[in-house]
Amino acid sequence: MAMYLLLGAFGLALAFLLAGGMMRRSGVSGVLELPPPVDAGSKVRTWWVQSLDVAGLIVMSLIFMGFGVSALALGGEDQADLSAGALVLNAAMFAIFVGAVWAIVRWRVRPTDWLGLRWSAWVHLLWFGPTIVLGMWLVMGLLQVAGYMAFMEEWLGTPSMQESVELLKESKDSTVVALMALSAAVVAPLAEEIIFRGYLYPVAKKWSGKVCAVVFSALWFSACHGNVPLILPLFLLGVILALAYEKTGSIWAPIGIHFFFNSATVLIQLAIRAGWISDQVAS
pLDDT of 21-38, one tens digit each? Predict the structure, then answer.
């Protein structure tokens, strides 16, 4: 059942993308005519998106879909036995994907303009980043109190704990713990935001419009983690990350929010390992 729901989430995301594309083109009479522009009033520009990027979106989406499906299929394996080499390989794969996206885009637009790297208001991350993390914790707490997490775990027979969190809790190898902490707090926010918000989102936006692109990128992002009970809260996080990118026009905004969210989880698990807080309090 869990696998069917995961594939259903991917299918729903694709449906939003296709529906948005068809709606934007419903008023276009000629084959060579372009649909209405989507950049008006937006800080995330799509003028650089070309036909080549449709293929890029398909390839990257399928790769991360594979990650999600394999993560769910292998969910029963003991994550505490994951080796340092596997984590290094995972980080190297992310670097390759980011490099591929960078190579595809940079010859058309400067990275500073593409990703809004020169963001003068970055200091605001210091307050709205932690605020969003607290808001997400409140949402997840409400889902826990409402019995949503327990229901999903019992119904699907899969845990709601992410593999990275399980590894941070259970691994006896300090090197693995350090690499996992670095991967979760630094590698994942940088790589996932450049790929999902920096590339897939504007390509989807050019095709289907802002609303459908937000839903597509957020739902694909949540499903790619391969944890069905967490699809709902991760979808909400994905929406927030996309809207933060739209609001600021800088990739540093979603990267920062993602960094604060993951780092808070890492710090809590490290505190549990050190005995500073109990596992019952954290859960």
Answer: 888 877 655 444 556 666
- Indicate the residue type of 185: A
- Per-residue pLDDT tens digits for 89-109: 999 999 999 999 999 999 999
Residue type, 252: W
Model confidence, pTM: 0.92
* Torsion angle of the four alpha carbons 15, 21, 25, 31, in this order, in degrees rounded to the nearest 10: -110
Q: How far apart are the C-alpha atoms of 17 and 57, rounded to whole Å?
A: 11
Among 198, 184, 191, 195, which residue's Cα sits nearest to residue 251? 198
Rounded CA-CA distance 110/230 in Å is 36
38, part of any domain: no
End-to-end alpha-carbon separation of the chain, Å?
26
The whole domain housing 204 covers 2-22+46-282
Per-residue pLDDT reduced to its tens digit, 185-198? 999 999 999 999 99
The answer to whether residue 90 sits within a structural domain is: yes
- DSSP-based three-state secondary structure for 194: helix
Amino acid sitting at position 31: V
The total domain count for the chain is 1
